[in-house]
Specification:
Layout (H helix, E strand, L loop, with lengths): L1 H10 L1 H5 L1 H40 L4 H28 L22 H21 L4
Helix pairs in contact: 1-3, 3-4
């Protein structure tokens, strides 16, 4: 498994001496750990779904337990759909430029005062958006 390999490499003293390599491996290890965590949650929820289905079959005579099992099956299926979507997104290849900072410059062009007002409005809009996204300016 790639995560175990990354953990072993990060423990190697020769890697800790090279700061650039250490940073790259640590970033890759964090990304892999996120995917592994999602997968483990997915498999645990699948096991809970299987147990709820068994309970439903076993409790055919008990209406209360059957209703509880149906409720748990619905919750498990909804969670599995969300986890599946999250896993699909996490497995998409990452753009190498994602970690780089981005700069946005807004200038008033030709057009006088109206152009300056538009540039100011645009700046406020981008600043609010960045604030809501949790980005630092």
């Amino acid at each position: 498994m790639r995560l175990a390999e990354l953990d072993a490499r990060l423990a190697d003293p020769s890697v800790t001496a090279d700061l650039r390599r250490l940073r790259e491996l640590a970033r890759e290890q964090a990304e892999a750990a996120d995917v592994v965590s999602l997968y483990r949650r997915y498999t645990a929820r699948e096991a809970e779904l299987a147990a709820a289905r068994e309970l439903l079959e076993a409790s055919a005579a008990d209406a209360g337990m059957a209703a509880l099992a149906r409720e748990e099956i619905g919750a498990c299926e909804a969670d599995l759909a969300q986890l599946d979507e999250a896993l699909q997104r996490s497995l998409l290849p990452r753009d190498p430029d994602d970690a780089r900072p981005a700069f946005l410059e807004i200038r008033a062009g030709t057009g006088g005062e109206e152009s300056a007002l538009f540039a100011a409005d645009l700046l406020r809009m981008y600043l609010r958006y960045a604030e809501r996204q949790g980005w630092r300016s």
